[in-house]
Amino acid sequence: MSPPSSPSPPPPEEKEKKEQTPDKQRDSLSPLHIEHHKSQWATAQDRSSSIVANSYRPSISQTAAERARRHLNAKLENPLADFSFNELRKMGRAYAGEHGLNDAQDVRALEIGACLARDPADLSHAKELGVTDAEYAVLSHELEHRWSQPRLLYLVIVICSACAAVQGMDETVVNGAQLFYAKEFGIGGQDPRSTWLVGLVNSAPYVCCAFIGCWLTTPFNHWFGRRGTIFLTCLFSALACFWQGFADSWWHMFISRFALGFGIGPKSATVPIYAAECTPPTIRGALVMQWQMWTAFGIMLGYVADLAFYGVADTPSVTGLNWRLMMGSAMVPAVVVCCFVYMCPESPRWYMSKGRHKEAYQAMCSLRFDKLQAARDQFYMAELLRAEENMKIGQSKIRELWSVPRNRRAMLASEIVMFMQQFCGINVPAYYSSSIFSTSGFSDKSALTASLGFGILNFLFALPAIHTIDTFGRRNLLLSTFPLMALTLLFTGFSFWIPASTPRIACIALGIYLFAMCYSPGEGPVPFTYSAEAYPLYVRTLGMSVATATTWACNAALSITWPSLLRVFGPQGAFGFYAAWNVVGWWLVLLFMPETKSKTLEELDQVFSVPTRIHASYGFRQIPYFVKRYVFRRKDVLPVDLLELDRERGVAMDLGVMHVI
């Protein structure tokens, strides 16, 4: 598969002034760690700091440590921005020599690739850099047709999507199976012991994820790499699913499902990282979004399996064959991933983190059409990795999550969306829809069919999120969908007061379906996307570990408590409980969650540097705007500007009319 031809590169522009500096006379240039580059980084950082201080009022009161963090985070946004082409050529040549890439074609590719890495979208200097017509055709085609990629990269995308489907299927096959194994294990009643044990068995994987599984991500990736971690976690998933099919008691089922958590936790954190490290930047964001979409697809497959095996009869030697096949069916996609994952190359960035740059280059070449693309992406990744390794602020990253105000606000917002992803109530229908439909008057088969409808809608309404999350923004999507989710949950709960008849069944199903339609474009994709971009790069991995642990812990809490909540308060009170949490979530997002849509790293630093009290005030001021703009449809109303509000606060502080917040 090769890209089409393209016209010759445009004539060269006037050369940069940097190209005329005495640096051009040097015959060689070491990588970033030599003193010349250190001084250039310091100069660039001081210049960036000056711009921020003059354009953004609150930065005047920043401590030296906070300014240093901003400088380093800006450095990570583009570590090559302040180097000339001549310097970058020499850096590329030095990189090739340092890591044994001595083939003449590889050296040339790294020299030119280092220059292109400064701004991959700018091909105006291509001819003067020595790019051939064929290479220019590849580079321009990449910009114009971002989804035209080598077949091996598509295999990586398919494997990552299959991993997400494994995750979704692992979560939902239990939905239908519990209709049968709960009775077989003597925990199918409505007494307190039975309801707590059903919840405990269902929650077992998520308890493991929260307290053990997700914390194994770092050591697994360190020891086994990205592919090895994916292989091991899918192997754990397959074996645990197989084991569940042979459970003969509730505690046996609990242990097998707890073991499933070792396959869910590290996989959920590793697969998006692997996809991001293998794919070019032009499609990276869309692939991160697709994790949630294909997880929803796996959830739907779980319901399909439940319905497919519902009618399987027992044999003389096996009782409960239908639910055993349901639980075991989730091993199939996991086995498929295990069979094909080693046909994909290892992550180039993982190789580089181990000092194996030559193998990283070979892997990158297999994921790109041309060596020039591979050299460009690898050189940029190497310099970014070097910059990250140099980010030692002087205190532990764990402490910095709490002690640095900018990080603390990012963590607050991230924890809110992760907490609300579970406490909006989505996993009530995801894990218990068959039981809910059965309670409302459905037969067991009809309950499984209705659950499949929920899974289909959950998947279909996740598809537009790839577009809407960047069009409407993360915060606006949540503010729009939380009230709707609250109303649909109330509608579902109140429908149980309708006398047992067809209208009651239809209303309950309608409420759950409408809830899925509201959840999928909002709280479905936003939490992981938001958490990944809210944190500064130097604490992002740790921040995501905390966020992931939060969502799994809340998932476990919901799974354990729902059967008892339903028994004590009835369906009206249980659904009303989560409807109330959606109202709470709306206020939390309004007051404490800044918008991150389409913002650079430096802009994110500015947004999260706004004091919490100011952002809460901004949220309150938005309410009249929302009413005038969206209720009364007035187009002349201007929205409140967060940074302008903070600048006013800075002026007020200088005049002595406000306390420092």
Summarize the structure.
The chain is mostly helical and 661 residues long.
Largest sheet: none
Strand content: under 5%
What is the second-level CATH architecture of the domain at 393-609?
Up-down Bundle
How much is the average pLDDT?
A: 84
CATH superfamily of the domain at 393-609: MFS general substrate transporter like domains
Outline: globular
- How many DSSP-defined strands? 0
Order of helices and strands: HHHHHHHHHHHHHHHHHHHHHHHHHHHH
The helix count comes to: 28
For the record, give the distance between the C-alpha atoms at the N and C termini, rounded to a whole number. Answer: 58 Å
CATH topology of the domain at 393-609: Growth Hormone, Chain: A
Low-confidence parts: 1-62, 652-661
Strand pairing plus helix content: what structural class? mainly alpha
What is the CATH top level name of the domain at 393-609?
Mainly Alpha
Helix content range of the residues, please? over 70%
CA radius of gyration: 27 Å
Transmembrane segments: 196-216, 228-246, 291-313, 325-344, 446-465, 477-497, 503-520, 541-562, 574-593
Biased composition (Pro residues): 1-11
GO biological process, one term: myo-inositol transport
Family: Belongs to the major facilitator superfamily. Sugar transporter (TC 2.A.1.1) family.
